[in-house]
């Protein structure tokens, strides 16, 4: 499990920047990253796009279910474009306790976008909403770190 401090250290050492697009995690991922060391140097910020309308209008999510791989990838791409970050990560899913749009509680997509790679992962997390949220944040931190490791160091 990757910590925000590990992301901070790697991003600073390599001159890279990070941004986030969040739905399910409601700003908690951005809060975790902004509390990491020297975040002003490497954390560009994020967008909390809780509603489908914001996902579509601000982040460019197409007319697809918002708890989907396509939506998660579009959210990551959208926030990377908005912020100019080297790496962007996104979370979308169903915290629970009930299903949403045909997806069961715990269904979570995390995606990462970089100039050289983009991918998403799906998880079916167990537990009450607060545990699903914590697991989604861990997933996003892992993806952000993996995305950072795929980037060439900044040349400035």
From TrEMBL:
A Pfam family the protein falls into: CinA
Query: Which positions fall inside the CinA C-terminal domain?
Result: 5-143
Q: What is this protein called?
A: CinA family protein
Superkingdom is Bacteria
């Amino acid at each position: 499990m990757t910590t925000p401090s590990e992301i901070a250290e790697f991003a600073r050492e390599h001159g890279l920047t990070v941004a986030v697009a969040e739905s399910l995690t409601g700003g908690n991922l951005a809060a975790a990253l902004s509390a990491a060391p020297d975040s002003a140097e490497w954390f560009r910020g994020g967008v909390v796009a809780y509603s489908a309308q914001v996902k579509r209008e601000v982040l460019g999510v197409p007319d697809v279910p918002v708890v989907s791989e396509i939506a998660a990838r579009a959210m990551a791409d959208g926030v990377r474009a908005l912020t100019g970050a080297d790496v962007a990560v996104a979370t979308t899913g169903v915290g629970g306790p009930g299903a949403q749009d045909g997806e069961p509680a715990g269904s979570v997509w995390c995606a990462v976008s970089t100039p050289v790679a983009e991918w998403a992962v799906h998880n079916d997390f167990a537990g009450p909403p607060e545990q699903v949220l914590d697991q989604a944040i861990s997933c996003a931190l892992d993806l952000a770190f993996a995305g950072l490791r795929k980037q060439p160091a900044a040349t400035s």
